[in-house]
Amino acid sequence: MTTIETRFKGILRYAITLFAALWIVLCLTLFTVGVALADENTLLDNRNYESGGMASSNFGYGNLAGEAVPVSGFHANWIINHSLRLGFYSESNSLEDEYDMTIDGIKYGINIETTGLDIGYTCDSDRILHPVCGLMIGGGYLKSKRLEDGHTERSDFFIVQPRIGVELNVTKWMRVETLATWRLANGVESDLFDDRDIGGWSAFIGFSFGWF
Question: With respect to CATH, is domain 3-211 assigned 2.40.160.20?
Answer without folding.
Answer: yes
